[in-house]
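Lab manual, section 2.4: Encoding a predicted structure.

Procedure: take the sequence of the chain (194 residues), apply the prediction step described in section 2.3, and record the output as structure tokens. A sample record is shown.
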Amino acid sequence: MNKFLVFLAFLIAQSFCLAKEALSLKGVRFSINPPSAFYLSKEKKISLSYPDTECLEVRKRVGKKNIGFFCSTHSKAFMRDFGVFEKQDDANSGGQAVDEGAASYTLATGMSTYEVAPFTDKGIKSYAAEVDCDEAGGAVYRATSTCHVAIAMLKNGRFLYSNIVIKNHVSGAEGGKVADIKKFWESLEPTDAN
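Recorded output:
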């Protein structure tokens, strides 16, 4: 019984701990307060691989399983390597003005390309798509999961990028929920002008 009470106290403490943690990302003036479903921690591997890039790991609060990452970058190589490409003007557009964010980018994976759609406009205007993804990261691309990728271009020229697993179709493991990912993006609060 005592072990159960200690475990219960630990779980309750974990649910309050870090719910309002303020993390910052290089070159971005935002307070990041993740929804209670997520736990954020500094990510080093990607951050060190690209100049002027800083990332956070996104983990499920229950089980602390890594389900993705959120980055701030100026690096064009980062955006290219993670499948974010500027679209070229469509010859069929007839020179018509189009929504700058959604029309300007497309997402690519090892298997497909995806059009982005508006995702959030509270605080930061972002665009997103659900894409195929390979969680294993092996030599051969295997689209075993569905990921939610969101992007935003800030006025200071930086990009925000998130890639969060929604579901692994091989193991059946659930990742983040799109509603929680949206809450996460909406929790980005400018602390100063971009």
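Check your result against the sample. The first helix runs from residue 2 to 16.
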